[in-house]
Specification:
Blueprint: E1 3-6, E2 11-14, H1 25-38, E3 42-46, E4 49-56, H2 57-64, E5 66-77, E6 80-94, H3 97-109, E7 113-115, E8 129-132, H4 134-147, H5 155-160, E9 166-170, H6 183-194, H7 210-217, E10 224-229, E11 235-243, H8 244-254, H9 259-272, E12 276-281, E13 291-295, E14 308-312, E15 317-321, H10 323-329, H11 335-339, E16 359-360, H12 381-385, H13 396-410, H14 412-424, H15 428-445, E17 446-452, H16 466-490, H17 502-520, H18 530-533, H19 538-567, H20 571-583, E18 593-595, E19 617-621, H21 623-626
Parallel strand pairs: 18-19
Antiparallel strand pairs: 1-2, 1-6, 3-4, 4-8, 5-6, 5-17, 7-8, 9-19, 10-11, 11-15, 12-15, 13-14, 13-16
Helix pairs in contact: 1-4, 2-3, 8-9, 13-19, 14-15, 15-16, 15-19, 17-19
């Protein structure tokens, strides 16, 4: 497997691999995203067709042969906290062409990329053209957000292709990277798999565009009715059926499972838990069949959980959702009951059942301990939007509006609607300033770049390595961003001047006046030009961030106490609230929700921090996908 070299100590190590011979999931995802950031996705031709936003086998092999990932973190100097220092870590990946192709095959198995000319192909070919899948774009967006990567060169890719809105992650054991199978995890996975209602594709599915088709598919595995003749020659109709192959593809596309083998194991767990059952498998006797078997402890006397379950991975195998599956999916529950996370069916306590031991193909392995499978409940969307919601009754209504505003910031559709509301009330600048500062702080704390370590020869007159040039440009863009914020919202008579505390404005103005006069000898005139801004160093930017944060707090409090109470009474909010509650993953209300950007910077790919979440499942949401949704009018 690819080796990683740390230049500072000239050390190298191999990526950890599982007993199946693949790299650990986190390393696979990080290396994939690092490769894509380093590539120039362009239009490539194959079989007399053009494929935009694609790359070739040669492109991937060339960059993976020597790929550098550099990450710079800014923070206080331990010896002198008033100073800001930058620490840069560079990780180099090195591999042969054959190894690079094998790694790309892992990306295909994980459904991060697909063959542009033949999306149904599962093999990474010697001469192929490849594009990112919606799942791959979700993973890439999250990686870029966590690591402070400038993705301007990928903006056209995100805007022109469907992105997976919600990706369900099944947590894994740190020792061998195997999925932790527990009742809680299988419950979350199955509810996401079958959706909030049976997902029968609309009749107009063939007329939909790529975005709409993907949106329909994301609701749950596509179902159908299957008729067959019974023993008395009477026609028997099975409802809520699906093809085995369709189930494997759906699990690979919308969850963190890697490859059909792992997807088949999860499907076999559905069989073992009594959630699905085989309807028919009309393959011919001489057709080969791959059957996955999982084993574990049986449930109690009234439990549907068996000691083993098997799933047939054949083209003719048809399965259906059982009555137990319907009950667990809550298809038959009223909307109001299903939306409530306080109902008994909604809360799957990890302490109520022992974690399930599981095995594959008759090989026994020990499952996680009870403590390993602990699930932390999150507040559901329904509760957060409920006007009576209060996270802490002792804090009263004011605290409730603060909680609502935090959630509005997290939910893309609500945030856009809230921005429209503020615009109509002539105070849109409050939200714009808050979000711009959030983005600036994230960019300041962590900066990363990914490049091919052996790029084409530098142009005449070009100084420094591509990595150094990228870091210098990033620092320049940070300075420009800091003073765009100032000149837009805080300078006297600016176009979107904030109405803030007089003392805060004077404190910021006094600091800028002192710095600019010491650097240039000129008197501060209220605005900062580009020449003056470029002389600011990282420590001075950090001081500005602290001042911006204090203004942020003031603006947030103002929106929470003045704007939110009015906003939640508007007709547009109430209409969107109904839609979001209907679309909410109520069954996932027991599992943590992780925003793509709500995470601390990750370590360089392949270098584990040693701190892993264990047990259960969680969902990450794509902010970009929320802005490109194209709902379709259902005709069923």
């Amino acid at each position: 497997m690819p080796a990683q070299e740390a230049p500072s100590g000239n050390s190298s190590h191999m990526m950890k691999t599982t007993k199946r011979g693949r790299p650990f999931l986190k390393d696979t995802l990080d290396l994939f995203a690092t490769l894509i950031v380093s590539l120039e996705l362009t239009t490539n031709r194959q079989y007399f067709r053009s494929f935009p936003n694609s790359f070739t086998t040669d492109d991937a092999a060339r960059n993976l042969a020597s790929l550098k990932f550099s990450q710079s973190n800014r923070g206080p100097d331990p010896r002198e906290p008033s100073r800001i220092v930058t620490t840069t870590t560079t990780t180099t990946f090195s591999m042969t062409r054959d190894m690079a192709k094998a790694m790309c095959q892992q990306f295909m198995d994980a459904r991060l990329i697909e063959n542009a000319a033949d999306p149904g192909s599962n093999l990474f070919k010697e001469r192929g053209v490849y594009v990112l899948t919606p799942k791959g774009l979700h993973v890439l967006e999250r990686f870029m957000s966590k690591n402070g990567i400038n993705g301007d060169h990928l903006a056209h890719v995100f805007s022109s292709q469907p992105i997976c809105m919600k990706l369900l992650h099944l947590e894994r054991r740190s020792v061998d990277d195997e999925i932790i199978v527990s009742h809680s995890a299988i419950t979350a996975l199955f509810r996401r798999f079958v959706g909030r209602q049976p997902n029968y594709p609309p009749e107009v599915v063939d007329t939909l565009d790529a975005f709409q088709k993907y949106h329909e598919r994301s609701k749950g595995v596509a179902l159908m009715d299957v008729s067959e003749k019974g023993s008395s020659k009477a026609t028997l109709t099975h409802k809520n059926c699906f093809a085995a192959v369709t189930a494997l593809e759906w699990l690979c596309d919308f969850t963190s499972v890697i490859g059909r083998e792992e997807a088949a194991e999860m499907a076999a767990q559905f069989v073992r838990f009594g959630l699905i059952t085989l309807v028919s498998d009309k393959r011919k006797n001489n057709d080969s069949a791959i059957i996955f078997t999982v084993r574990g402890a049986a449930g109690g006397a009234n439990s549907s959980i068996a000691q083993h379950g098997e799933f047939r991975c054949t083209a003719k195998a048809i399965y259906k959702v059982t009555d137990e599956g319907r009950r667990l999916a809550r298809w038959d529950m009223p909307d109001g009951v299903r939306a409530s996370p306080n109902s008994s069916a909604a809360n799957v306590s990890s302490t109520a059942r022992a974690s399930e031991d599981h095995s594959v193909d008759n090989a026994t392995s020990e499952g996680p301990t009870l403590n390993d499978a602990k699930i932390h409940r999150r507040i559901s969307m329904t509760e957060k939007l409920n006007a009576s919601y209060d996270a802490d009754k002792k804090n009263g209504q004011k605290e409730s509006n603060t909680d609502r505003l935090r959630f509005i910031m997290e939910e893309p559709q609500l945030r856009l609607l809230f921005k429209d509301f503020l615009r109509s009330n002539f105070c849109e600048e409050n939200l714009s300033f808050y979000l711009d500062v959030q983005d600036f702080k994230k960019s300041f704390s962590t900066t990363s770049s990914a490049i091919a370590a052996n790029p084409p020869p530098a142009r005449a007159g070009q100084k420094g390595t591509p990595g150094q040039i990228a870091m210098e440009r990033h620092h320049e863009s940070l300075i420009q961003k800091a003073f765009v914020i100032y000149n837009t919202y805080l300078a006297p008579s600016s176009q979107s001047e904030l109405n803030i505390d007089h003392g805060l404005r004077n404190e910021l103005s006094a600091y800028l006046s002192e710095v600019i006069q010491s650097m240039t000898g000129k008197t501060f005139q209220g605005h900062v030009d580009l020449e003056q801004a470029n002389q600011f160093n990282a420590t001075q930017l950090q001081t500005m961030i602290r001042l911006y944060e204090r203004i942020q707090t003031h603006v947030f409090r103002l929106m929470a106490t003045d704007s939110v109470p009015k906003f939640i009474k508007t007709g547009r909010f109430l209409a969107l609230k109904v839609k979001l509650v209907e679309d909410d993953d109520g069954p996932l209300a027991d599992f943590p929700l992780m925003n793509t950007s709500a995470s601390t910077p990750s370590v360089p790919p392949g270098l584990s921090s040693g701190e892993e979440e264990v047990g259960g499942a969680y969902v990450t949401i794509s902010q970009r996908a929320a802005t490109q949704e194209r709902p379709v009018t259902e005709q069923r």
